[in-house]
Amino acid sequence: MKKLSLFVAALFVCAMSFADVLYTLDTTGDLQGTNNSYAENCDVEVGSITWNFTGNAKINPWRIGGKSLEGVDREVYTKTAFPQAVESVVLSLGTISATLNSVKLYYSDNEEFTDAVEVAADAEPAAGTDLTFAPAGGFPVGSYFKFVFNVTVAATSNKFVQFSKVVFNGEAAAVIVEAPVISATEESFVESTQVTITAGEGLTIYYTLDGTTPTNESTRYESAITLTETTTVKAIAYDEAGASSVVASETFTKLTVNTIAEAVAAEANAVVTVEGQVMAVADAGVVLEDATGIIYVYTPNLELTIGQLARINGKISNYGGMNQIANATATVIGRENYEYPTAEVWTGASMEAWILAPERKYVTVEGTLTINGNYYNVAVEGTTNLASIVKPAEDYSALDSKTVVVTGYAMYVTGKSTKYAYIVATSVVEKDELTTGLNDVTVDGKARKVVENGVIYIMRNGVRYNALGGMVE
């Protein structure tokens, strides 16, 4: 009996040895991600698979852990479906200085890991060991994989588990069918969006819209699909021999458009969608206006310009006592002519009154500009508090230490002993420049004097200013 057992074991080893190595993630070399924080994560693309890793991916091998942890889960998972069937997954662990309570592997047919299946390892986790995960029947084509490390670190300094290598074994497919690509005119839409699905030459595409996994019994793709509600589109491709691809999946979301007034009144962290016109641009945001109000959209690199109509989707945050939209995405939906309202002229006293009861409005104020790094502060006569320009997109360095007239949208207040009334500027000009050419109506087009009904205005680039430099209708 003992000889028979040994013979069977030998056959098993031989059988395992014939499995092909389908894919390897090896972090023992110079492969690095962008993240060096144990509590944060980053995406790393290795070959055809994108991994999401929580831990320090800037040190080789990658490290999972942290400090002052009690039974905390750290995840490592694929964001790409595996294109072949897998017989076994082998995880190699390196040095362990944290307490590793458990390592679990889950697989699923979707990247959200709903209805994920847990697979047990063949051994307890320990430093320098290989853990093999091999469910009966293997892992099906199109699987997503997730490792969950449960760690405890009593120390206040970082301890870790080295995530050294993962090897996927199985029988290499003779033909790998390329997965279809799902795209839409708008991934997030208000009324409708058109979805197209493409695949390689000679492949036939089938799809579902109800969240179920498509097969060659599902609806065959012939032409673009119109969606009017939030929908998950799943698609699969088959070649002429009947071999199939992994399932591609994309979700397209119907948005409810809020008014800006609703966004201003929303609770923190609420997700909102607004549409309006861009009225001012700063270095890291824009002022958006609709018929109900104005709001600051605090997100760099939106690449919006004044006059554009934009749809903004983002999360409400509160800064300086006022709601703003942060972490936003922007879609340009048009452009229209625009007019600025009559600016309220701020004196020291009126700026003080606004600081006590701020509301967003269009203002103009005169004072001495001081630029220090990202701070553009304007000392206004009659108050020790400061007007402050939200870091502008334009270069105003030539105006440092000069008397300027700032016109724009007063948006929020910060500061303790000294208060800062922040303005997203539409115009910052030197006061003397506004009066250049008062006695000459054609001074190289910069400025000219206009008298209407006995009132003197200064015209500059087609815009009228009052004596303080405020824009007037």
Report on this structure.
Helices cover 8% and strands 49% of the residues. It has 473 residues and is mainly β. The radius of gyration is 31 Å and the shape is globular. The chain has helices at residues 2-17, 260-265, 348-356, 431-435, and strands spanning 20-26, 41-46, 49-54, 62-66, 69-78, 88-96, 99-108, 117-119, 130-133, 144-153, 159-170, 181-184, 188-189, 193-198, 204-208, 219-220, 225-227, 231-238, 248-254, 271-282, 285-290, 293-298, 308-319, 322-335, 344-346, 361-372, 375-379, 386-389, 403-414, 420-430, 448-452, 455-460, 463-465, 471-472. 34% of the residues are buried. It folds into 4 domains: 17-170, Jelly Rolls, CATH 2.60.120.260; 181-254, Sandwich (Immunoglobulin-like), CATH 2.60.40; 260-335, Bacterial OB-fold (OB fold (Dihydrolipoamide Acetyltransferase, E2P)), CATH 2.40.50.200; 344-472, OB fold (Dihydrolipoamide Acetyltransferase, E2P) (Beta Barrel), CATH 2.40.50. The longest helix has 16 residues, at 2-17. The protein has 4 helices and 34 strands. The strands form 7 sheets. A 6-stranded antiparallel sheet has the order 2-3-5-10-7-8, with no helix packed on it.
Feature tags:
4 domains, five-stranded antiparallel sheet, 473 residues, Immunoglobulin-like, six-stranded antiparallel sheet, 4 helices, single chain, mainly beta, globular, OB fold (Dihydrolipoamide Acetyltransferase, E2P), 34 strands, Jelly Rolls
